[in-house]
Amino acid sequence: MKRTVFVCSVILAMAIAVTAAAPGDQQGKTVPRDISGAMSGMFAFTGPWEGPWIVEGNASGTVTHLGLAQMHTTHTTSADGIVSGGTFEIIAANGDRIRGSYSASGTWVGEFEVKGTASFFIEEGTGRFKGASGTIGADFFETLASDYWSAEVEWLLDGTIAY
User: Fold this and answer.
1) Could you give the C-alpha distances from 1 to 5, 15, 85, 132, in angstroms and in order?
2) Among 11, 76, 82, 163, whose CB has the most other CB atoms within 10 angstroms?
3) Are strands 150-162 and 32-46 parallel, antiparallel or unpaired?
4) How many CB atoms lie within 10 A of CB 2?
């Protein structure tokens, strides 16, 4: 009987130790990671000729911690280059997603060229990015089509994501 109690006690102690040492989800503990990359894509503009315009963007490129990623953006922009209501979603190579909002502004640097900066605020995610937060700074350069209703866009991203 003593032997059985001793064996059961040892097994129970081992089970508790294994459970305590086993990796689980992070339970709110996040680790900040640098995130950077370059993406290329297009903007499409809709709205009245004089603005403001609804802008939908799609881009792809390689981003650290995401692999070959796709980015979808939507915002409203005015003729003076102010962006409002920006939302974004970046889809990692494995399908995990980060989402949030952004603000941006741009300046005409040529007849068909706009250069600007944006701040992406990570507010949620899926998969390994569930509960993610952080900020990604971005520089962008867009070259408008001759009809002004679309533009090629290049993004340089640099920031921090915690997950």
Assistant:
1) 6, 21, 72, 52
2) 163
3) antiparallel
4) 6
What does each of the 163 residues of the chain score in pLDDT, given as a tens digit? 565 555 555 454 554 544 444 444 445 578 999 999 999 999 999 999 888 999 999 999 999 999 999 999 999 988 877 888 999 999 999 999 999 999 998 889 999 999 999 999 999 999 999 999 999 999 999 999 998 899 999 999 999 999 9
pTM of this structure: 0.80
Q: Is the CB of residue 60 less than 8 Å from the CB of residue 73? A: no
Q: Cβ distance 116 to 81 under 8 Å?
A: yes
What's the CATH number for 30-162?
A: 2.40.350
Question: 142 CB contacts (<8 Å, ≥6 apart)?
Answer: 43, 106, 113, 114, 116, 151, 152, 153, 154
